[in-house]
Amino acid sequence: MNFTCSRRRATAWALAALVTALGLGIAAADPERGATAPACDLRHPLDVRMRPLDPVVRGGSLRVHLEVRPDVGVERLRVEPVSLDGATLISRAPSDLGKVEAGESATTSFTVQLPDAGQRFLLVWRVRGEGAMGLLSRDATLNLLPDGPADPGVKRTTSTGERIVEYEARRVGR
Questions:
Q1: Maximum Cα–Cα distance for the chain, whole Å?
Q2: Exposed (0-12), middle (13-18) or buried (19+): which is 95, by Cβ within 10 Å?
Q3: How far apart are CA 142 and CA 135, in angstroms?
């Protein structure tokens, strides 16, 4: 019995070594033969963007614009608050955006009252809809800094011509 277990274990190790060797052999294939690593471009089918329309001030009201641009046709598109991080919704919450075709956009806006104290507020909204792939859901977060970002960022233009401000990624919290 002990011999059988050892033999099975040895067979498993040999099989694992063979699979690894084959994988390494494929990865190290001759570049002249055209072997390259496969490209992977994963994107969520719902592109959601939020931006403040007013200055971010402690205790002030803030209008926020929300835009949803699906890569696929979506029906029954809904937007609902998940967390307002101490802020109070003072306008009617956006909810039903209806049907949106692929590549088109649906927009809505809402107004929140920010708390009098705090260094940062996170507004989190959930966007849901039904498409050909079934139920689609995505959360979007807007990070509001009343004192402005500690990192001013670097302005640059993407390959598609979109102007963005790029910030250094850091862990937030404790």
A1: 76
A2: exposed
A3: 23
CB-facing half-sphere around the CA of 17: CA atoms within 13 A? 6
Residue that the structure tokens 């859901």 belong to: 137
Rounded to a whole number, what is the distance in angstroms from the first to the last CA of the chain? 53
Return all residues near 50 (Cβ < 8 A) that are at least 6 apart.
64, 65, 66, 67, 123, 125, 140, 141, 142
pLDDT tens figures, 12-48: 666 665 556 555 555 455 555 555 666 777 788 899 9
Question: Per the structure block, which two tokens stand in for 110?
Answer: 């809402």
User: CB-side exposure of 113: number of CA atoms within 13 Å?
Assistant: 7
CATH superfamily for domain 46-145: Immunoglobulins (2.60.40.10)
Average pLDDT, the chain: 81
Kindly list the domain boundaries of the chain, sorted by start residue.
46-145
Instruction: Measure the CA–CA gap between 35 and 105, rounded to whole angstroms.
Output: 39
Using alpha carbons only, what angle is made at residue 135 by residues 125 and 140, rounded to the nearest 5 degrees? 20
Structure tokens that stand for 162 in this block = 């979109």
3-state helix, strand, coil in the chain (%, to 5): 15, 40, 40
- Residue in the structure block whose two tokens are 């233009």: 157
Contacts of 88 (CB under 8 A, 6+ apart): 112, 113
